[in-house]
Write a structure and sequence with these properties.
With 423 residues, the chain is an alpha/beta fold. The protein has 2 domains: 114 residues, Urease, subunit C, domain 1; 290 residues, Metal-dependent hydrolases (TIM Barrel), CATH 3.20.20. The protein is 37% helix and 21% strand. It is built from 16 helices and 19 strands. Strands 8, 9, 10, 11, 12, 13, 14, 15 and 16 form a 9-stranded parallel beta sheet that branches. Strands 3-2-7-17-18-19 form a 6-stranded mixed beta sheet, with no helix packed on it. Strand 9, helix 6 and strand 10 form a beta-alpha-beta unit. Helix 7 runs parallel beside helix 8, helix 9 packs parallel to helix 10 and helix 13 crosses helix 14. It is globular. It starts with 8 loop residues before the first strand and ends with a strand. It binds N-(iminomethyl)-L-glutamic acid and fe (iii) ion. Fe (iii) ion binds next to loops.
Amino acid sequence: MVGTAAVTLAVINCSQVVTLAGPARPRVGAEMGQVGVVAPGALLIRAPRIERIGSTDEILAAVDPDCEVVDAGGRVVLPGFVDAHTHPVFAGTRVDEFEERIKGTTYQEIAARGGGIQSTVTKTRAASLDELVTAGKRYASWFLRGGTTTVEAKSGYGLSLEDEIKILRAIKRSDQETPLRYVPTFLGAHTVPPEYRNRRSDYVSLLIDEMLPRIAEQKLAEFCDVFCEENVFTADESWRILSAARCHGLGLRIHADQLSLGGGAKLAAELNAITADHLEHTDAAGIAALKAAGVQPVLLPGSVYALGSSRYPAAREMIDAGLAVVLATDFNPGSSPTPSMLTILSLAATHMKLTPAEAITAATINAAYSLNRGAELGSLEPGKVADFVIHDCDDYRTLAYFFGVEHAWQVYCGGELQISKSG
Ligand code: NIG
Ligand code: FE
């Protein structure tokens, strides 16, 4: 349901306003457990920005006569989740492979015989821009209903200049035509397409000499990502692609050490990447290298769970080492078919031993900084964009505790109501 923008909006009677207020940088160590709760609390919004946070009495004393007042009824308010790693534009599903994996075939075996990412590439190449936008809008509504207001969105199911541009245009249109905010990332190095299998260095050259210059020139991406993994892109190829991307002014992200220890974390550190993502196999030396270079780890427990693995990344060691940990869904049709940040909070708490406060920090303010949006998004502070969610519970820790429940009750983007559930 799309609401009309109030000039001013007050949200009163919140049991907790979880502000995530703090220093103008990502949170590390013990700071990750400090979520800045104002309890009870209220917010004053002058759309699209937050004007003030305080008690209900203070906020009511400050409202304009024509101010719309929303009674939160003792519920909690959080910033919208910032999902800093998703693959949200693709055609079809991989439900057939899902069933095969249940019967014992592995993700890598399916990829090796030309399924996996490649099967989504075949379907995505055959789809029109409009078809991709239509599919993507359905997923946008899932993200919003789950309380997510910003996603990082990767291309990577096109793997030709034309098809990668089609996906990045679909991402741009989704950003313009839905309330969800999209931050675009070029992932042409997601896998080597079959037509280049016997001449992979030609594909790396295509990425560096043709795709990256065109995509940068057309300003279709802010970041470049590479899937650095055995049988995908080597550390050396990844270094060449990411170094070229940096010359075009793109920020660097990398799929690192997901299925094996392939040196991705060390490479991220060498290249001063903004993030290194996955890290299920990263060792102590990799964690130390990320710390020394100030790289943010983006941890994706949804893909560990959905691949039936029990090898979760060493999140506690990363927090103890002082890394500014981020959590994300990795929403994609193969390894992580979930858009739900609430599910990710539950997995992070249960399997990675993050407290609810640490997990929320990783899913909001730290995620916003990893997308260069820390000054605008990820916390509820005066002057920031009013992307916030009223969740139907009275204690924020409940969000990671009752799992499989869509807690979001009302979702606001830029101070405008986008989703409202009854009851
Ligand atoms: O992050 N690891 C590479 N890319 C995705 C999987 C994409 C797919 O299977 O379609 C991931 O897990
Ligand atoms: Fe991914």
